[in-house]
What we know:
A two-stranded antiparallel ribbon of chain A has the order 1-2. In chain A, helix 3 (92-99) packs across helix 4. Chain A is globular, with a radius of gyration of 29 Å. Chain A is mostly helical. The longest helix of chain A is centred in the first third of the chain and has 49 residues, at 3-51. Chain A has nine helices and two strands. Chain A starts with a helix and ends with a helix. Chain B is an alpha/beta fold. Chain B has four domains: 5-37; 112-181 and 387-483 and 518-551, Rossmann fold (3-Layer(aba) Sandwich); 201-377 and 572-592, Dimethylsulfoxide Reductase, domain 2, CATH 3.40.228.10; 613-740, Beta Barrel (Barwin-like endoglucanases), CATH 2.40.40.20. Chain B has a seven-stranded mixed sheet, covered by helices on one side. A six-stranded mixed β-barrel of chain B has the order 22-27-24-26-25-28. In chain B, strands 11-10-9-13 form a four-stranded parallel sheet. In chain B, helix 5 crosses helix 21 and helix 10 packs parallel to helix 15 (352-364). Chains A and B meet through helix 1 of A and helix 1 and helix 2 of B.
Amino acid sequence: MSKIDDTKQIATDGQERMSNAAETGGPIILFFMIGVVLSLIVGWVIFPKLLYSQKEQPIDFNHVMHVELVDEGCESCHFFREDGSFAGAPTLAQCIDCHEEVQGDTENETKFVEAYVQKGREVPWLIYSEQPPCVYFSHIAHVKMGNMDCVTCHGHIGESTELPIYEQNRISLYSRNIWGKNIGGFKKNTWDRMKMDDCAECHVKEGVRQGSVQTAKGGCFVCHK
Amino acid sequence: MKIDRRSFLALSVGGAVGTALTPLPWKIQDDLAIWTQMWPWTPDPIDGENTYVNTVSTLCRGGCGVTVRKVGERAVKIEGREDYPTNQGGICNLCASGLQKLYGPTRIPYPMKRVGERGANQWARISWDEAISMVAEQLGEIRQAGQPETVACLSSRKYGSMPGLLKRFMTAYGSPNFMTTPSMTDAYDMTLKRMHGVEGRVGFDLENADFVLSFGSGMIEGWGNTVHMIRINSHWKDTQAVIKQIEPRLSNTAAKADQWIPITPGTEGILTLGIAYVIIKESLYDYDFVNNFSSGFEDFRNAVLSGYSPGNVSKQTGVDQSTIVTLAREFARARRPIAICGRGQGTVPGGIGEYVAVHALNALVGNINRPGGVWAMPRPEMDGWSEPILDASAQAGLVKPRLDGAGSTSFPFAEQLFNRVPGALMAGRPYPCKALLVYDANPLFSMPGVEAVREALQQIPFIVSFASHMDETAMMADVILPNLTHLERWEDVPATDGFHRPLIGLVKPVVEPQLGTMHTGDIVLQLAAALGGSVAASLPWKDYATCLQEGLSSHWADLEDNGYWMDENYQPDTWSFAFPTASGKFDFAAAGGDLKALFASAQPDGDDGSYNLKLIPYDSVRIANGPVGSPPFLIKIVSDKVLQGKMLLVEVNPETAHAAGFGEGERAVLKTPLGSATVRVHLTEGLMPGLVAIPRGLGHTAYDSYLAEKGINANDLIGSVEDSASGLDAAWGIRASLVKA
């Protein structure tokens, strides 16, 4: 075979390959795109649904109704104890002050009195904002000394008529409110997330002393005692 | 469209790219990191309201005021109560570990009866009604048969409402056999009876003493009130009091003293008399007290001068003559000298001669019922209780001699001699014991010569235990009626021996009863009700709390408000009124009898030349050796010079060890006439040559894996030795040998 023939042959092979590529190029991009789209759907939509289990609160508590009836707002029930520690969710003993008998005509109250008050059982409230045991958080330092209001971290739960579904991370067992509702971790409001970075962000912004009081060194021990 | 390998690759790459654009990988990483911190076995601190309850701890003998911190309903921390008179904020390590006794797994959860062989630890759960009627039926039958005296009751405490209630039950039932486990309390009570003529209890105004001669008392190792004594020891550093510790082993007390004087074990009484010899010979004694407020001094003087010259004493005790003379002069010339005894924690009383000699030393310098001295104090009484009612059966039973011979012509000054009970039971004299009630005591661990005690208890057909935890004695019982623990019950705790103010502390329930157990006081009241008649009439209270409140009605307001009652201004009787003896004076002759025989010390078994060493037990504040076994926290702080795994290390002087061919850590067999055990040798200069020392409180066979089978029980190897003059257990140790394993 001559040199010219060789050149022709090479050109022909090249054309064939190019036409093959043109034939399969579409499907490859298509499959690539399908992969991208599917994984985006899995990551943004399906994954959060799998990651969190949903639990209903034992009693659907109506904050609005209660806030109207009490004098001191949130602190009427979520109060500071004499020693300065924060009581958190009310215990049965506090509820009984008003609910020894059924007061109104709501189904929830009847359920509450019958299932808990009459049996002397504590209500197993699911705490949306519960931080893990390794975190020391002082409410009094923030609310009384830092003059922060409840909404800054807890949002507008006090204005709700029913309790949201409690979502629990199946791996870490944390409440979803710690990471935030947005699976991407994006937040618009201060109360959207309660991770360490969110604490730090506010501390930096407010110029809170970062070091530990005892050691004046890095701030780990301020919260992780 | 052709789907081939490339399509899948494209799909995968697209998937990877897409996934990277979702939060999935980063969120999973974050959650997995958190998951590793959330292991289910990691304990979480519980959340809730913090409350504090003041009560008194009964685990050790100190009876310290404690504050228990609770989170919600859970008790989480026990700390010393700042404003309690004895401990003032301090706490011993046993009582600080008290939560493990409350929540730990060795608790007996409900009443049980034995179903297997005795001691096989096989039980069947029974109801409280069944348990109480079972015991009441047995006791009723014995009483019906006209033998109420054959029922005995053992407690570890002598004072307070619970021993008081049990004693009252026994009295109304018709048995003279209420006993307490032996301790230095018995010896000091007897000394006060013989020399002061009073039924009192001893107090030491140690705070104000400026020269302390301690004959082996482990002052900072659990003698008296542990925490109070540690505080006083610190206080002495401020006041520059001089402390001389006389004992064969360099205990912590000896190490902290101004001088450690090593002495041949068991000869402390002889040294005391040698010191008395010098004081008398050199006329250093308090003339006013001796001449005007004492009797029997001539007898005492003659007995001392005839046999206890420093030369003679030095030979027997191994203490230099010059040291004896110096000690005597320093002691007599100090402003407020005090001499105390009771070896270690005082769990074995010792011979009465030693106590009389030590007390005589205090009397020689006139330091009786004076600031910085030894005080005879009133016993705590349940003065709100009326006298029990005795029917004919009770009266007939109560005139019978006691099983232990206490109060008999042989031992007229003794109130209880439980150490003599095993011998009596084996001999069946004066009569067999048909039932034994055991409250807050574990004689099958804590009595010297455990094996003899075990054999003796086998002779008793019906043993009832009120133990909260499955200890060695509970395992031998036929029925267990478990008591509430110290954090679940009401009780009173009079101050420990040695505290010089009348003091009663109130034990209050800190938490609700955690298991199906019941207060022994309530059980006793129910037993009495079931027995009916005068027994029921003598114990008429509806529950123990009422009975307690009534008994202490004169102090109840203080007890309720402060958690304790104390007579802060208490002063002992002055010399003119303090001694209701025959002569109306302090009696150096210790109520007659042969003083020489009194001072002769009893010697342990095995003195036949086949044992070349002496084994002595020692007490440590890190090991519980009373009725309560060490909780896990306590075992963790036992030094590895004492316990390595399950192996006990015995202390031996290097000189003795090398002579026997032992090096540090080598295995050896420790033999005594009572038994043998494999141990390792730990060399220490802090022990006199010729001795072997082992701690008390290890070698349990009961309890959990933290405690059981660790080390050896000193009481397996060391027996009881009866002091012929008093019946008390005088054993300071035993002859022993150490041979290659």
